Amino acid sequence: MSQENIKDSEVDIVIGALQSDLSSFLNEWRPIISRFHLIIVQDPDLKEELNIPEGFDLNVYTKSDIDQIVGSSGSTFFSGYSCRYFGYLLSRKKYIISIDDDCFPTKDSMGNLIDAVAQHITNLSTPATPFFFNTLYDPYCEGADFVRGYPFSLRSGVTSAMSCGLWLNLADYDAPTQALKSQLRNSRYVDAVMTVPARALMPVSGINIAFNREAVGPTLFPALKLAGEGKLRWETMEDIWSGMCAKVVCDHLGLGVKSGLPYVWRKERGSAVDSLRKEWEGVKLMEEVVPFFQSVRLPQTATTAEDCVVEIAKTVKEQLGRVDPVFARAAEAMVEWVKLWKKVESGSFPGI
Amino acid sequence: MASTAAVPLLKDELDIVIPTIRNLEFLEMWRPFFEQYHLIIVQDGDPSKTIKVPEGFDYELYNRNDINRILGPKASCISFKDSACRCFGYMVAKDPSGKDINALEQHIKNLLSPSSPFFFNTLYDPYREGADFVRGYPFSLREGVPTAVSHGLWLNIPDYDAPTQLVKPRERNTRYVDAVMTIPKGTLFPMCGMNLAFNREIIGPAMYFGLMGDGQPIGRYDDMWAGWCTKVICDHLGLGVKTGLPYIWHSKASNPFVNLKKEYKGIYWQEELIPFFQSATLSKDCTTVQKCYIELSKQVKAKLGKLDDYFNKLADAMVTWIEAWDELNPSAETNGSAAK
Questions:
Q1: Could you tell me if A219 and B114 are in contact, meaning their C-beta atoms sit under 8 angstroms apart?
Q2: A338 min Cα distance to partner chain B (Å)
Q3: pTM to 2 decimals?
Q4: What is the count of residue pairs from A and B with beta carbons less than 8 Å apart?
Q5: Helix axes B289-299, B222-237, angle to 10 degrees
């Protein structure tokens, strides 16, 4: 794969609005995002009207749009942080960048403002190298290359399908960790992007993420809904689940997943101690989820992301369904999502 | 963190192995960090030359005559006129911002804290101060596994192969990446021997640097070979390999034309070697590093012997190495689980 040339017009920036006043968020990001098209999806449970400053090219979707497309029963899947996935569904662009509404632009270790959007775009437009680990990290960035011992046949890399960014200040820890280490803040700026190797799984955080919608859009769906899912990241697992699906699918299809830069600054919100009560369900489920995904093998006949998701859903139902009913529901939701995705792609919802 | 502790970490349990053909003035720059430790110097090349070691260091020096004397016929497995001879030192060993980097201290920290090869932590080493496991990381995997290898990096002259050096002679690595991370299980990497630390007790026998240099068709692949074997064995035995910090300053680039002559066979052989190592599996009976290594040597002979007769000789040398290792280290059973 050679360098892609990603135009601004091919990118959608999708924001899930869990708070009604988006003015400080959008104004701080303005220099970085104003030239892009934005999709803002309002959490269906949020009653207040959104406060959005002028000067952006955007579409806003609310509960009524969600109900119209997926019906009121389906709209429970898009509540809370999951509302952004509705934006993924309706986007008509090739690439999506999505950042939580409590994250802000920040500076690197030299004091320069980080353009997180530009970095995500760079990550997606340069190849990934999942088959062999380069010890100098991203070989395509300025001032770096493949090291001695890296096979030449692997140096052209594969298409990058996902770019997983990181967070300064409030890192994406789970509730037990943050509650135990209440003063722990991430102040370490690690100046690297790297490809997560094939067959290595990781927790994909939805807080600061970008992806090739055409390649992996169907894999990112909040199918795993915790019973006690809440409005704080500590109380969700949806991104972790869909991220694992996405990684398994990328590994199968020979696509790359990158992790590292860019960083965003994540503001304080909520109490980890309060969230602890709800979080245990997610923590327990991960013990089943990880070995499951590590063992998933997709058939050669699954050549698209949609096919892969359907196969994974089957296996989830067979193997995890009997462990906990939440998995059986997740499997069904994944199948429904693929159907919905195909419907939207085929243009069955004109005017949206 | 103090750069000069009252009693240095692992003072009596750590050896610093240095292969050389030159005088060792560079040790002056490392004096504050190395003076308290025991050095093993492996002198390559002409044994009649005297290597000057600065005053005040505690060291043993072995030249080719010593290697021949100690190993007898088995000395054939130790390369001559190639830095691969460093592995003899392993066999005889007995147990960014403006601040100076204490590489040794970082290597020790890396080795003494666990690795996490089964699931990638997006905030890198979770055992480092100021970091932890991220949301979604299963609690059952948070204890980690013992760390066998700490692979450090280099600022200034990067470790490029000859073709890359020829194309980019001026490129310097100026990026200090403040991270240590575990290389996931099942993933191979190019292990550079320039700045390397390992737990000899749990992985030592795998650190054989192959047949390189004088009389051999290949050079500059010694550490690569050791790294691929080591990683396969670590993955099999449930041990961890870390890469990243510490950085050292690499000041002298070797001649790219000389390098090209040494490496060129390696460049096209590695196209076969990588798939070989990626698909290598070891049987359940391989419960010690030595057993893993012998099994690997059989697979090298069976699958790579047809690539070039060199690999038949290398497979034999791998066996000789284990025999020599066991002879010089009779009591230790390196079963991969002895580490703290």
A1: no
A2: 24
A3: 0.90
A4: 170
A5: 120
Is B267 touching A (CB cutoff 8 A)? yes
Q: Which residue from B90, B111, B94, B107 is spatially nearest to B19, judged by alpha carbons?
A: B90
Yes or no: say if A219 and A209 are a contact pair by the CB < 8 Å rule: no
The torsion angles phi and psi of A322, rounded to 5 degrees, stand at: -80, -15
Q: Which of A309, A142, A289, A88 is nearest to A201 (CA)?
A: A289
Lowest average pLDDT, out of A107-111, A188-192, B68-72, B134-138, goes to B68-72
Q: B192-218 in b/e burial notation, b at 16+ Cβ within 10 A? A: bbebbbbbbbbbbbbbbbbbbbeebeb
Tokens at residue A106, please?
Answer: 């920040």
Q: What is the pLDDT of residues A199-210, one digit of tens each?
A: 999 999 999 999
Assembly ipTM: 0.93
Query: How many whole angstroms separate alpha carbon A135 and alpha carbon B196?
Result: 13
What average pLDDT is seen over chain A? 92
Question: Cα–Cα distances in Å, from B301 out to A64, B276, B316?
Answer: 68, 11, 8
| Residue A243 near residue A190, CB atoms below 8 Å | no
| Contact list, B131 vs chain A (CB under 8 Å) | 186, 188
Which among A41, A36, A1, A37 has a CA at the least distance from the CA of A18?
A: A41
Q: Do A135 and B153 touch (CB under 8 A)?
A: yes
Tell me the average pLDDT across B4-25. 79
Q: Which residues contact B298 (CB under 8 A, 6 or more apart)?
A: B315
Distance, CA of A66 to CA of A83 (rounded, Å): 9
Do the chains contact at A145 and B164, CB–CB below 8 Å? yes
Give phi and psi for B89, each to the nearest 5.
Answer: -60, -35
Amino acid identity, position B7: V
Chain B: give the shortest CA distance to residue A226, in Å: 13
CA B124 to CA B128: how far, in whole Å?
9
Q: Give the CA distances from residue B254 to residues B77, B261, B320, in Å, rounded to whole numbers and listed in that order.
A: 25, 12, 31
Pick the residue of B122, B143, B241 with the most A CBs within 10 A to test the interface with A by mutation: B122
d(CA B251, CA B257): 18
pLDDT tens per residue across span B257-280: 988 988 989 998 999 999 999 999
Strand, coil or helix: A161: strand
**Cα separation, A82 vs A340, whole angstroms:** 16
A174: left (phi over 0), alpha (psi -120 to 50) or beta: beta
Q: What residues 268-327 of chain B have any CB closer than 8 A to a CB of chain A?
A: 270-271, 274
Give ∠ CA B75-B80-B84 in degrees, rounded to 5: 95
Task: Tell the burial category of A49 from Cβ atoms under 10 Å away from its Cβ (0-12, 13-18, 19+).
Answer: exposed
B164 touches chain A (CB under 8 A): yes
DSSP helix/strand/coil, B188: coil
In sequence order, the β-bridge partners of residue A259 are A164, A194
Compute the nearest-CA separation of B160 from chain A (Å).
Answer: 5
- The residues, ordered by sequence, that sit 6+ positions from A288 with a Cβ below 8 Å of its Cβ are A320, A323, A324, A327
- Nearest C-alpha of chain A: how many angstroms from B340? 24
